[in-house]
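Predict the holo structure. Ligand: S-adenosylmethionine.
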Amino acid sequence: MKQILLIGIGAGDPEQITVQAINALNRARVFFLLDKGYADDDLLRLRTDICQRYIRNDEYRLVQVRDPQREDDPQGYARGIEHWHEQRAVLFERLIADELQEGEVGAFLVWGDPALYDSTIRILDQVLESGREVFEYQVIPGITSVQALVARHRIPLNRIGEPIRITTGRRLADMARDEPENVVVMLDAHCTFERFVDQGLDIYWGAYLGTPDEMVLSGRLDESLCAQIKRLRHEARSRKGWIMDTYLLRKPL
Ligand SMILES: C[S@@+](CC[C@H](N)C(=O)[O-])C[C@H]1O[C@@H](n2cnc3c(N)ncnc32)[C@H](O)[C@@H]1O
């Protein structure tokens, strides 16, 4: 039977990878790399660097393909995501059918951990459900950007007995201004934290965590800190063409 490994590779620091992930890298023969189509794709480079650094044989091959682009759908956000997943399922099915021989092991290198805001598990389930390709798959956990963020700031993710909410910028925008108690925000392209200025919250922010471009800032979320994060974010994004940042908003005790 064909086998697929979904390997969590951490969120940017090539040393934040587990022994289990390194062993999995060494079991796979075919690596599927999804290319976002940027001229200078740091994320793709990090994946190939990880292969070179940790794989102790030269019997593997890389299959690089263009990732379908997510388009805004006139029928709404959820429909846009659904359509994108359908396109990715078609692509994954083709890769497994054409690029992997019976008995071979293939791998997808997943940013951070495959269970957190990543669609690879859902898409492989979709491909299996279609019944046209038969394979087994295994998930190898990775260090998430959330863990990288709190480690970098030297804070626990939750305080004693306190719940923690992990959400998106999109969802944060719908929260009342006094609602966040302890919230990690990901996938926020619009600096939604600005809405919560002068609400007595602390922010712990990090961009490009674990990479040479890493930036972190923290403190009481007031006009000045908000402007500073926005400026850094804007400058870095213009320079590099992309940004990934994550932050924690916390009401002090
Ligand atoms: C599609 S999600 C993938 C999350 C990933 N599976 C994980 O475990 O962290 C992408 C979001 O993760 C966060 N992220 C990923 N890598 C990051 C990094 N190195 N620094 C800061 N945020 C990061 C950002 O919020 C980004 O918008």
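The domain at 2-143 is CATH 3.40.1010.10 (Cobalt-precorrin-4 Transmethylase; domain 1). The mean pLDDT is 94.
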